[in-house]
Amino acid sequence: MVSSAFAQPAAPVASPERDGAALYVAQGGLIVTRLASECLALVGRAESPDSFTRTWKQRNERYVNASVRYMERRVQEAVAVGGQAQGDAVQAAFRKAVQDNAEAELRSLLQGSRTDGCMYGITLIEAGALDIGSKTPQFKQLEALAEWAAR
Questions:
Q1: How far apart are CA 94 and CA 109, in angstroms?
Q2: CA quadruple 65, 66, 71, 74: dihedral positive or negative?
Q3: Cβ(64)–Cβ(29) under 8 Å?
Q4: Potential cystine with 118: which of 4, 16, 32, 39 (Cβ 3.0-4.6 Å)?
Q5: Nearest to residue 105, comparing CAs of 54, 29, 50, 21?
Q6: Cα Rg, the chain, nearest whole Å
Q7: Dihedral of CA 107/19/66/78: which sign?
Q8: Taking the model in full, what pTM does it have?
Q9: Residue 34: helix, strand or coil by DSSP?
Q10: What contacts 75, CB < 8 A, 6 or more positions away?
């Protein structure tokens, strides 16, 4: 049996790189969800917002799952270090950052004619512009997050 004195401390879950990657994924998901709920009917699309959002999440499943897993572990770590209030604070700060960033993007996209903005946004999503791939600006951080979550 190995003595606990020789046990290596676990590496911290939280990191600025993983925070940024998780934020990027969650923000993309919120943008897709909001555009689907606010725009599909407006542009004459019959599919449900849930179906549209689910399709995007399936295309980006590796990163969506990694983001969710990271945030779960990030909050658990905060609770272990500073109690439930600290975990709640981490969760609230992340949620606010996601909402603020997504809202800014949506305002920019939907300025002017709402129908035109909605059509443009839905077209972008369907064309894969919000999908995560090797051309995504933060791809290295996103891939590192997915690899971390797979361990």
A1: 23
A2: positive
A3: yes
A4: 39
A5: 29
A6: 18
A7: negative
A8: 0.89
A9: helix
A10: 87, 90, 91
Each domain of the chain, given as residue ranges in start order, spans 16-150
> Structure tokens of 120?
């443009």
CA distance 31 to 34: 5
Going residue by residue through the chain (151 aa), what tens digit of pLDDT does each one get? 444 444 455 688 999 999 999 999 999 999 999 999 999 999 999 999 999 999 999 999 999 999 999 999 999 999 999 999 999 999 999 999 999 999 999 999 998 899 999 999 999 999 999 999 999 999 999 999 999 999 9
Q: At what angle do helices 84-109 and 114-126 cross, to 10 degrees?
A: 110
Q: Both tokens of residue 35?
A: 């555009």
Q: Is the dihedral of CA 42, 43, 47, 49 positive or negative?
A: negative
